[in-house]
Design a protein that fits this description.
Length: 163
């Protein structure tokens, strides 16, 4: 899926493993690159100067590319790089197979002007856990057209993350 900005094409999502599968009727699916588990507490305040994100530890896929996740919360990183133009925003929903397995994904809003290899929170509610294979399709990113360009573009600490 591509939009045209001026005379230049701007891909909304770069690095798709297979666009024929990942481009859906209502959005684009993002796939699993990495899973991390939380190993410390985070800190959140009104002023971002006092913010401290939780530390994580990278988890390893087995020789066949699978990973077992028990009940709990995990930080996942996607393969694809997302490019949100200034006249769009995006939200994401988990694929229904995850929900039917007792798993969900929590995401923040993708702001106008954001570019990066995004991360989300994968929550395993199923007491039996889940096995997930590297590159699994986890969520569908849905783009919303704004009424014109945003006056400001995203410029937070996550700009260009994981690229």
């Amino acid at each position: 899926m591509t939009i045209i900005t001026g005379s230049q094409a701007c891909p909304l999502v770069e690095g798709q493993l297979d666009p024929r599968i990942q481009v859906q009727m209502c959005g684009i699916e993002l796939t699993l690159l990495r899973v991390e588990r939380f190993i410390s507490a985070g800190e959140v305040a009104f002023d971002n100067k006092e913010r401290k994100v939780s530390e994580t530890l990278d988890m390893q896929f087995d020789e066949s590319g699978w990973i077992y996740l028990g009940s709990g919360a995990y930080l996942v990183t996607f393969n694809e790089i997302v490019n949100i133009p200034r006249d769009m925003a995006a939200v994401a929903k988990p694929r229904s197979t995850l929900l039917r397995s007792g798993i969900s994904i929590e995401t923040a809003l993708w702001d106008p002007g954001y570019r990066g290899r995004s991360q989300s929170l994968l929550v395993v509610y199923n007491s039996h856990g889940i096995r997930i294979k590297k590159n699994a399709r986890l969520l569908q990113l849905v783009f919303m057209k704004l009424n014109g360009d945003s006056e400001t573009a995203y410029s937070g600490i996550y700009q260009e993350e994981n690229i």
